[in-house]
Structure of HutD family protein:
Amino acid sequence: MHHFDVETLPAGRWRNGGGATREIVSWPVGAEEFQWRASVADIDRQGPFSAFPGVDRTFTLLSGDGVRLTAPGTFDRTARPEEPLAFSGDLELTAELRGGACRVLNIMTRRGRRAARVDRITGPAVLPSGHAAVFYVLRGHWRTGTGRRPLAEGQGVWWDEHDTTPDRAATPLSPGAVALWADIAPVT
């Protein structure tokens, strides 16, 4: 398992100036083309989103009032707090901010090679072996694995499908603890 704290990840500005991305992981690490990618994006202003042909995305609002994503005639959905929203990276989307800047967790998978499912969890969970995953704390404190230090808001862990960590349990350590768990499975 690889630990991360979003606030210590370097932020790269978008080419269009509308936000910044803090990459958690792009797998395989160092490869020219990712199989899957996890990042946290700060969206500062409304405008076009970059298309990612051949990629499926799941977008979860972490802070802010909402983001409406539209592609004329094909897609019109609003991302609401802590509700994963899946969509095709092929779409030429425009983002409309509801009430100002926001932050999102963005999970991207290469279509036909990996598939992601993002769930909001509030209780103990056992994370499957043979899958990659990203575990991100929204509120409270959590423990993942045996002997790991507790994770707080904005922190998490990720691993690839080859990780041999024997204990993949996630346990809330405080009342009202909430986390996001992105299960990233190979497509067979």
